[in-house]
Specification:
By secondary structure, this protein is α/β, with parallel strands linked by helices. 28% of the residues lie in helices and 24% in strands. Helix 1 runs parallel beside helix 8. The structure holds flavin-adenine dinucleotide (FAD).
Length: 547
């Protein structure tokens, strides 16, 4: 490497993806410099409202889950989704989702039976990001460079040199690192420089999002219905979504424009649309906190890497965030990448291990993008019954039937077990496949499996500990009682690969083999009986990217 590097990894962008990259690298003893144009703790737009279970599991590993779960809506505020004729109108149906204070004990709701130590959490990005930013600022080996702009990079055999400048006037200067991650969002300069192109469906729908402050709205809602985190509203005047941001009267209102309006989105009367969604008259007043007009898309980069430079999060994929899998998919990308980089920088993996990033993540992001788009297209044609707002039996019948329909359509996106746990890596160079076929998955449905590439099914040990809390930073053998792992352990030690074993008295049926080898990100990479020494050696060589 020419000269001393400023860090092992340079991260462009301190959104949720860049910040989690820094935190995860720090947990692995890898240094990182994060370059961000926004000031430290400068709030992002009021966007993402949902931290998925799998992201919460990663936050738990990093020791942040409890702080995140305590933030956002009050602990007793229901995280339900209610379907109504308007925010203050008639309730049609509801998906129950526990308040954060009851999250580990509640038994009512479609996601309360999930096999996980960390169920999802509904929290706006404006609460999440400051937690991540403060943690990153305090993390060993992490340097945050706020009010700093990344311009370009040059890479050579040993590393990457990035050109940056201080927004407050300093001339351009350079930073040197072994690797660079572009987590610089949808307009990513890093993506452009590595020559990646986005393709897919550039325009699905135009959306006006407005964050409003209106504490007196709660007083206009029926006292018989509990509060909710999300409200989907349907009436012939306007279809929209409303999210409670803080539980005290700040709401995010999404106005979905029709295909006819898409030709001239600027002509849509924002205030009238908000009033139709809220179900309030002209004399009702609210304060606009912020507004953002955006286009729902489905776009995916053709490559996630060029040499030592990688892209992650919105930099490599953009899609309508139905099922809450925009940010969460980006976090899954980057934590896959930082595990690989950690292995490489620690020295036990070969450079080739980095090929796994695109091989594993790109097919998954493609799948998620289609799930999200397909849901958007179903929602875009809600087929409102004519009698939806009528009084009397006909109206009651129409509301009942429509309430069931929208509930059933949307439950899978708000309890997306499939998106969280169902995907599998089926073409990775660092997984030893054995001919088993991974079960299929849908947005809402997941079948536990130990086929290599799948998520190791969660289990609790006799003392109640979560298996996931016991996974080593490298690999963990989940073993039936008496399974022999000495040979596997010795071959790992010889190569400096972090390895541990967890013996389980009664393995669930999905664990079909005496030994299931699991990566720290919960991916099954091999399963079988005790290997011989040559078999163990060959396995570790494959896993560390040497084959
Ligand atoms: C209305 C809305 C609702 C959403 N809801 C959800 C949801 O419920 N669930 C979900 O998972 N996702 C949701 N999303 C998507 C989610 O907000 C994004 O996927 C997420 O913010 C992406 O994170 P990121 O870190 O990749 O990018 P960003 O959050 O865009 O962060 C990129 C960062 O890079 C910085 N940057 C860019 N260029 C440079 C440069 N040249 N130099 C220095 N810094 C730079 C930017 O300032 C920014 O801070 C929603 C999005 C919208 C618009």
């Amino acid at each position: 490497m020419t000269g001393m590097p400023d860090a092992d990894v340079l991260i462009i962008g301190a959104g949720p993806v860049g910040l989690l990259a820094a935190l995860d690298l720090s947990s692995r003893g890898v240094s990182a410099v994060v370059v961000e144009t926004r000031d430290f703790l400068e709030p992002p737009n009021v966007k993402c409202n949902h931290v998925a279970s799998r992201t919460m599991e990663s936050l738990r590993r990093l020791g942040i889950a409890a702080e995140v779960r305590a933030a956002g809506l009050p602990a007793d505020y229901p995280q339900d989704v209610a379907f109504r004729t308007s925010l203050t109108g008639i309730e049609l149906s509801r998906i129950p989702i526990p308040a954060s204070g009851e999250r580990y004990t509640a038994t009512v709701g479609p996601d309360t039976t999930w096999a996980t130590p960390e169920p999802p959490h509904r929290i706006n990005q404006t609460f999440l990001e400051p937690i991540l930013a403060r943690r990153a600022a305090a993390a060993p080996g992490v340097t945050l460079l706020n009010r700093t702009r990344f311009h370009s990079f040059a890479q050579d055999e040993d590393g990457v040199t990035a050109t940056i400048s201080d927004l407050d006037g300093e001339d351009e200067r350079t930073l040197r690192a072994r690797y660079l991650i572009g987590a610089d969002g949808g307009r990513s300069a890093v993506r452009k420089q590595i020559g990646a192109t986005l393709s897919g469906d550039p325009v699905l729908q135009h959306v006006q999002s407005t964050c409003i402050r209106a504490p007196h709205l709660y007083g206009l809602m029926s006292a018989e219905e509990p509060r909710a985190w999300g409200y989907y509203t349907f009436n012939p005047r306007r279809v929209g979504h409303v999210y409670a941001i803080d539980g005290t009267g700040t709401f995010l209102v999404h106005t979905y424009l029709s295909p006819e309006e898409a030709d001239d989105p600027g002509s849509v009367d924002r205030d009238a649309a908000i009033r139709a969604i809220l179900g309030v008259e002209e004399d009702f007043s609210y304060e606009v906190v912020s507004k953002e007009d955006w286009v729902a898309r489905r776009l995916l980069a053709d490559r996630f890497r060029d040499g030592r430079v990688f892209i992650a999060g919105d930099a490599c994929h953009l899609w309508v965030p139905f099922a809450g899998f925009g940010m969460n998919a980006g976090i899954a990308d980057v934590l896959n990448l930082t595990w690989l980089l950690g292995a490489r920088i620690a020295g036990w993996a070969e450079e080739r291990i980095l090929v796994a990033y695109q091989a594993e993540r790109r097919p998954i992001t493609e799948q998620v993008s289609h799930f999200a788009m397909s849901h958007q297209q179903k929602l875009a044609k809600p087929g409102l019954p004519a009698a939806l707002e009528e009084e009397g039996a006909e109206g009651d019948d129409a509301r009942r039937a429509f309430g069931v329909a929208v509930h059933d359509l949307n439950e899978p996106q708000f309890a997306a077990a499939g998106l969280n746990y169902g995907y599998s890596y089926d073409a990775s160079p660092i997984i030893r496949y054995d001919g088993g076929t991974a079960p299929g998955y849908t947005m809402g449905a997941y079948t536990p499996s130990t086929v290599p590439g799948c998520r190791a099914p969660h289990l609790r040990l006799e003392d109640g500990a979560s298996l996931y809390d016991l996974l080593s930073p490298g690999y963990t053998a989940v073993c039936a009682r008496g399974a022999q792992v000495d040979v596997l352990a010795a071959a790992a030690e010889l190569r400096g690969i972090p390895f541990s074993a967890v013996e389980v008295a009664r393995l669930p049926a999905e664990y079909e083999h005496p030994i299931t080898l699991v990566r720290q990100d919960q991916t099954v990479v091999w399963r079988g009986a005790a290997p011989t020494a040559p078999e163990a050696a060959a396995l570790w060589e494959l896993l560390r990217g040497a084959v």
